[in-house]
Amino acid sequence: MRVDVLLGEAQVAAADVADRVVVVIDVLRAATTVAAALDAGARAVIPFETVDETASRAKAFARGEVQLAGERRMMKIDGFDLGNSPAEYMPASVEGRTILYTTTNGTAALAAAHGARACYFAAFVNVSATVASVRSATEHGGDVTILCAGNERRVALEDVVCAGRLVRGITAGREGISRGDGARVAEMAERPFQGGLASLALEAGHAKSLAAAGFSRDVELCLTLDRYDRAVRYHDRQLQLEPASHAES
Q1: Phi and psi of 68, rounded to 5°?
Q2: Average pLDDT over every residue of 137-142
Q3: Where are the alpha helices (DSSP H) in the chain?
Q4: Which residues, 6+ apart, have CB-to-CB distance to 45 below 8 Å?
Q5: Alpha-carbon distance 59 to 57, whole Å?
Q6: Per-residue pLDDT, 10
Q7: Among candidates 245, 244, 228, which has minimal Cα distance to 34?
């Protein structure tokens, strides 16, 4: 078994994900927001790379069945129902609905994961549940790629730290696991934050940019550990909660 981490700068190649268990990380904010939406009762979240694709797909649904959601340059897209703040995704807005969703970084990273044997969308808010699901998916072998979404093709510290926590959890107590250099970098980056995540709000560049734009509360929510106890799986181009039995088996 091998664990690799792509840190968010390089273009993802098909060979990086083919027939592997893949975890896509976007702490600030897409993976956190998707977890919040699904926990609030959304039927599914369907990610798209572009605004036009998202709006076009809405035509296939009755208007009351969907919510258009997402951001560009941190702000809600004009004409969309919801932005990318996890606190927006309450049952009154999303319960029973399908969320058509596009973001600057996270949804593009998910598109790069096509061809994976299994794919999860993770953040700090569901990191332990994701570890459990990946360990279950690799119980009988298989390689893992952790793909950091980053911030506009740059490394995002919060994603790398979350990747390090995933590596630590996935490999704990297992023998014969090799780690790529990216996985080792992520493990080293995570060590100073094992006692708590609060300082990431002051150290991570994207966190500081969000705070300056008025999204300090989002940063706080996104740096909350294990708020949700279910992993989010990307399957058939939809994001849904992993059935609890899968992670426990």
Answers
A1: -85, 130
A2: 95
A3: 14-17, 30-39, 51-57, 91-94, 106-111, 127-137, 157-171, 181-190, 200-203, 205-212, 216-222, 244-248
A4: 34, 37, 38, 98, 99, 101, 238, 239, 240
A5: 5
A6: 83
A7: 228
Sequence-ordered strand ranges (E) for 65-143:
66-72, 75-76, 98-102, 118-122
Look up residue 139 and give its two tokens: 């119980």
pLDDT at 247: 57
**SS3 category, 50:** coil
Q: Give the sheet arrangement for strand 44-48, strand by strand.
A: 75-76, 66-72, 98-102, 44-48, 238-241, 232-235, 118-122, 21-25, 144-148, 2-6, 178-179
Count CA atoms closer than 13 A to 123's CA, side-chain side: 25
pLDDT for residue 32 is more than 80: yes
As a whole number, mean pLDDT of residues 120-128 equals 98
Q: 28-42, 200-214, 233-247: which has the minimum mean pLDDT?
A: 233-247
Measured between alpha carbons, how far is 130 from 22 in angstroms, rounded to an integer?
11
Residue with tokens 């268990």: 21
Question: Residue 248 above 70 pLDDT?
Answer: no
Residue whose entry in the numeric block shows the structure tokens 């952790």: 146
C-alpha 70/C-alpha 51 separation (Å) is 8
Q: Which amino acid is at 178?
A: S
Determine whether 194 is exposed, middle or buried from the number of CB atoms within 10 Å of its CB (0-12, 13-18, 19+).
Answer: exposed
Rounded to whole angstroms, the Cα distance separating 94 from 186 reads 34
In whole angstroms, give the CA distance from residue 163 to residue 184.
10
pLDDT over 70 (residue 219):
yes
Q: What six digits make up the tokens of 27? A: 């702490």
